Structures are given as C-alpha cells and as structure tokens.
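Batch job 17 of 40 flagged for manual review because the log was empty.
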Amino acid sequence: MPTWDQDFDVYMAMMDDKPASFLIDLAAGGEAPVESHPVRLVIAVPLLRPRPDGLRDGSELDAMGKLEDDFASALEREVDAIFVGHVIHGGETTMYFYVPAEHRARLDALPELTGPAGDYAPSWGVEDDAAWECYRDFLSPDEYARQSIWNRRLQKVFAEGGDLMDVPREIDHFAYFATREQAEQAAEALRAAGFDTDDVEPPDPADADDADAGDGIPPWSLQFHRADAVAGPRPDEFCAEILDIILPLEGSYDGWGAPHVKAEGEA
C-alpha cells in the first residue's frame, strides 16, 4: 500500500510510430524509488476489440477499468503491491506494479492472486527494479507531456469559473536557470518570440543558504509575459514554444498564471 496520496493522470505519446496512452501516479515521483518495493510486476492484457490504431475502444472501457481495479486491489491486499500506472498501446493494456522482495515467490501464483479475468488472457513478467527505472525512465512523462497535464488541470479551473477562455489575456510565466548567462539568453529568445520579459533576478539569499546546506545551485529567475487565450490546444502550444527555448539552456519552467475573463456583468 502506498504511503502517499496517489495522483493519477493520463498523457499521450508515440511508441514505435503508434499512439500510446499512459496512466501514471504522478505523486509516486516524489517517493521513488521505494526501498521496500524493489520488484517490478508487469501484467499485459490483450484487448478484445482494439481500435485500428491499437488504443482501447470505448466498448471495452468499463470491462478493462473493472479488471484493472480488481487486479490492483487484489495485489495490494495479497502482496502489498503498489500500482503505478499502465500503458495502452499496440492492442494491449500493460499494468505496472512494484512489490516487496519477500513476496516475489508468491507472484508465481498470479492467476489465483488476481482472480478471474473473464474473457481476457493476461500474461505477466517479474523483474528486479530497485531503482524504479521503469517508472522513472519509461512511464514518467517528458517535460512537454507533464506540462500538458498541468495545462488541462488549469483549464478545468478556468472552465469551472465560467471564464471566457477564447479571449486573450496577459499570461505570466516563470522560469529558473543555474546561471545569469543562461537566463539572459532565454530572455533574448523569448523576446524574439513575442514575449515581454522582466529583469533577470539573482538568487534569493535564502536559496543560497539552502544551497550551502546541499540542496543544489540557487536559481536565477526570469518572469515573462504575453497575451494568449487559454482555450483548447493553445496552452500546450505556447508552453511548447517556451520549452523549446528554455530546455536547451538547462532552464526549468515553473508554469503560468493568468487573470480570469468573465462576461460583462459577471463577478
């Protein structure tokens, strides 16, 4: 059983020139690797009616969702497994778990541990993965996909607030860099892309104290702004513009914020 509040979300990627749908517990990233769970369990379940692109058809949504929930509950109960996510790709749903070493031998009895699978025919594999490399290097989203997840969550907040999301408004962005030179180079490139930039800010003295304590190099910060809408794919588009500029400069993007725009007369 995980000791943290799990936070599952989905993102899309391409694998072998085919689309893949990832589900991942984002909160596990702050805990991994979990020393008590060094064994990786992978369960692959061929879909009965996959879409032509290999993703799951809507007609299997309920059945596969129940199967996954049943497997995760049974394995947590029987072998203290931690479910960290799945990948739907190439006509299969593949589930990923981490299990304590003392329960490894019991995984040979998986059909009995997980219970019946109905019309599905799962297969499984067990590997040592004390560093949680599969979680970190395969399941985890890259910077673009991770930002897309946060964009969707922000868009939900705007939508629930009755925002006129198609209306452009000034959006504030934040990024951090290890050196002033990197921050200045990013500012120049961002201005060329139509952003207004504030002055590069030096590291906060409190951050420097933390760095002396072993927490790393204190960052130089850069705030920048541009008017954009927040509807549909627009946040992913402007975030991709930003990441294309700051990632080659070893920058860290800290997200965006914007005022709400309401219909006239609304509070």
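Reviewer: the log was empty due to a logging misconfiguration, but the result itself is present. The mean pLDDT is 93. Unflagging and moving on to job 18.
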